[in-house]
């Protein structure tokens, strides 16, 4: 009996040892999973927190992370949900691609008499103007002045954006500050709404356009990755001198069309019109137009987005606005033109891989007295858009702006207390007035 008991004891001992080992392995795996979650949280925090750091290295690392994220999202939308992109040329079987010639005509322009003004009229405030390009405009600003968006189209031009929330970092607040420092009363559409998709921007813009006077010039930009570098007086003058009814930003990248043929670039290389510069491709994050022309385009975009969503059974919120507008440009609709020479718009995304042409805006940039210029084209862009990989230059270029450096003696920057109390019109419809500090409480 003793050998038997001894063997049994050793057998149970091995079982206990194995059970203990299994418990230890499970615990270690659990710790590993927890560590991964904690590490992911730390990495996510590090992407946003360096934005307040002010260091060049932190700026580049945070921007590079944001740029990679944008690229990943772009590919997912372009390849994974092809039917949802508003592609007028190629739609996967079994449905044949719709021809541009049989698209519904654009919705009629709503006469201004059919709707009242979006906001009550107010007396226009004096603008400082571009003191470098337009020296006859009075220098400096009135100390203590507080720009308020409180009119339907003061000065014949209105600047709008679409933002439902402040985001996880302060880049939106930096965009607001750049607009404020250049006396741009930014109208923030959509503020306070839940974000569902890109078509919200189209619908919000269309609603706002319907309530503007016909003679109004409208400038629209993205919200979270732009910097203003001119006032509205100068932007309007540039637009009128260029003589194009509808002007979108030109950029180096051909997105999302580059994903249509698995990166071969047939659409980008052969369907896009010829361009005098590498800024050949349309960027929908910046545009300027008279109200009637913009209303035609956005009415058509919304109508066609609903047609595609119904035809291909996809959520309308997933339809890609940049692809739809790009197709309109390639098809020659609505007189859409691009700012190939960066007179008003400067997109900062670069391309370094075939089949697209080598194009990098960063070496073209030169800062003179706190004002960024494109030295290749000899222009001073009014608005910088740090789209895609261009995000790595956002904070570095902002730090060199005149209002951050105090290098331009002809300009007087808003003080922090003036920025805090600055009022902007936010929300859809009549919206409401909100102070800069209310919109960006942690920025100060």
Automatic annotation (TrEMBL):
The cross-references to Pfam families, in alphabetical order and at most eight, read: GT_PLOD
PLOD1-3-like GT domain segment(s): 167-393
Identify this protein by name. Answer: PLOD1-3-like GT domain-containing protein
Where does the record place the region Disordered? Answer: 83-131
Compositionally biased residues, Pro residues: 91-109
Keyword Transmembrane in record: yes
Q: Which InterPro entries match?
A: GT_PLOD (IPR057589)
Task: Show the stretches that span the lipid bilayer.
Answer: 21-43
> What superkingdom does the record give?
Eukaryota
Q: Does the keyword Electron transport apply?
A: no
- Coiled-coil region(s) at which residues? none
Keyword terms: Membrane, Transmembrane, Transmembrane helix
């Amino acid at each position: 009996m003793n050998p038997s008991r001894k063997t049994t004891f050793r057998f149970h001992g091995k079982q206990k040892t194995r059970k203990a080992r299994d418990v230890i392995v499970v615990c270690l795996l659990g710790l590993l999973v927890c560590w991964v979650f904690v590490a992911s949280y730390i990495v996510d925090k590090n992407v946003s927190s360096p934005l307040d750091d002010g260091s060049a290295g932190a700026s580049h690392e945070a921007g590079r992370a944001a740029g990679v994220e944008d690229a990943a999202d772009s590919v997912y939308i372009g390849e994974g949900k092809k039917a949802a992109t508003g592609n007028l040329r190629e739609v996967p079987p079994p449905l044949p691609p719709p021809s541009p010639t049989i698209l519904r005509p654009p919705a009629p322009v709503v006469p201004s008499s059919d709707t009242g003004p979006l906001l009550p009229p107010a007396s226009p405030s004096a603008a400082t103007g571009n003191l470098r390009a337009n020296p006859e405009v009075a220098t400096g600003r009135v100390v203590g002045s507080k720009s308020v968006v409180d009119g339907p189209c003061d000065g014949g031009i209105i600047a709008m954006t679409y933002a439902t929330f402040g985001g996880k970092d302060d880049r939106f607040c930096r965009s607001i500050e750049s607009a404020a420092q250049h006396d741009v009363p930014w109208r923030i559409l959509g503020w306070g709404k839940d974000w569902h998709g890109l078509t919200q921007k189209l619908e919000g813009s269309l609603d706002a356009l319907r309530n503007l006077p016909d003679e109004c010039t409208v400038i629209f930009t993205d919200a979270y990755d732009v910097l203003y570098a001119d006032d509205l007086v100068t932007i309007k003058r540039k637009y009128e001198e260029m003589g194009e009814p509808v002007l979108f930003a030109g950029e180096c990248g051909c997105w999302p069309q580059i994903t249509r043929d698995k990166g071969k670039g047939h659409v980008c290389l052969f369907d896009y019109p010829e361009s005098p510069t590498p800024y050949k491709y349309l960027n929908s994050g910046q545009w300027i137009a008279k109200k009637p022309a913009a209303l035609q385009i956005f009415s058509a975009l919304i109508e066609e987005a609903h047609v595609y969503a119904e035809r291909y059974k996809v959520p309308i919120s997933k339809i890609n606005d940049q692809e739809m507008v790009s197709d309109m440009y390639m098809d020659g609709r609505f007189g859409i033109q691009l700012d190939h020479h960066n007179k008003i718009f400067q997109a900062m995304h670069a391309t370094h891989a075939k089949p697209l042409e080598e194009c990098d805006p960063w070496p073209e940039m030169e800062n003179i007295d706190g004002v960024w210029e494109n030295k290749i084209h000899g222009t001073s862009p009014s608005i910088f858009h740090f789209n895609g990989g261009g995000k790595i230059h956002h904070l570095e270029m902002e730090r060199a702006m005149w209002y951050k450096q105090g290098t331009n003696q002809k300009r007087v920057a808003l003080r922090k207390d003036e920025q805090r109390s600055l009022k902007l019109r936010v929300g859809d419809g009549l919206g409401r007035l909100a102070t800069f500090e209310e919109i960006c409480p942690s920025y100060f």
